[in-house]
Design a protein that fits this description.
Layout lengths: L2 H10 L8 H24 L5 H4 L3 H24 L9 H21 L6 H6 L3 H24 L6 H20 L8 H26 L3
Helix pairs in contact: 2-7, 2-8, 4-5, 4-8, 5-9, 7-8, 7-9, 8-9
Length: 212
């Protein structure tokens, strides 16, 4: 049977028992998030001033941004996990969210004195930020890819990339409980860079693991 015929059959056969997409993905997402949180607590630890950081405008802005990335990514996975279904508005939403934080970062950088601009985007933890986000995202990405292999995505590379975006943004949210940075420019460079790297890894793994 040709692939296109199989897709059409899966899409039209109402008698076939379909594995529920949302419970499958949400179950694995929660499992990956728990592992991610345990890793942060055991290896990096929590920011001892988290109670003050939680109300800082930069922290609130960052978490709203990461929530938007997670929301659009999850919406996309719910769609892409089904055979023959496209990503919808996922890429537009993700692009706008990334552009929004990038724009805020550039504006803050331009408003900073020239002598302090390097500190604005490098902070005190640029060496470990992106690497930490990638490392924390791996259990989340692995759990999502395992769930997607039980489903029927027909765009493996895109599905893997969106799964990587979700894993990376969730890991970045968890890492925020450790991070002491308060620069939007820093977030636009190193947080976004780590998330983009995870998305790229997800695209490669999706292409290899989600084909059927």
């Amino acid at each position: 049977m040709k692939t296109n015929d199989l897709i059409a059959l899966l899409a039209t056969d109402t008698l076939q028992v379909q594995k529920p997409v949302r419970p499958q993905l949400l179950r694995q997402l929660v499992l990956g998030a728990v592992v991610c949180g345990v890793l942060l607590w055991a290896v990096l630890g929590l920011n001892p001033q988290m109670d003050q950081m939680a109300v800082h405008p930069a922290f609130v802005t960052k978490m709203l941004w990461l929530t938007a990335l997670m929301g659009f990514s999850l919406y996309g996975l719910f769609r892409l996990a089904r055979p023959g279904v496209g990503a919808g508005h996922t890429l537009v939403g993700l692009g706008l969210a990334l552009l929004g934080m990038g724009s805020l970062g550039v504006m803050q950088w331009l408003q900073t004195d020239a002598s302090a601009r390097s500190a604005q985007w490098m902070g005190s933890s640029w060496q470990v930020c992106s690497v930490s986000i990638v490392a924390l995202s791996l259990p989340v990405l692995a759990a999502l890819l395992w769930a997607l292999r039980q489903l029927a995505p027909t765009r493996p590379a895109m599905t893997g990339a969106v799964a990587g975006m979700l894993a990376g943004s969730l890991a970045a949210s968890v890492y925020s409980l450790h991070c002491t940075e308060t620069s939007l420019t820093f977030f636009a460079v190193w947080y976004a860079g780590g998330i983009a790297l995870v998305s790229g890894v997800g695209a490669v793994l999706g292409w290899r693991l989600l084909r059927w």
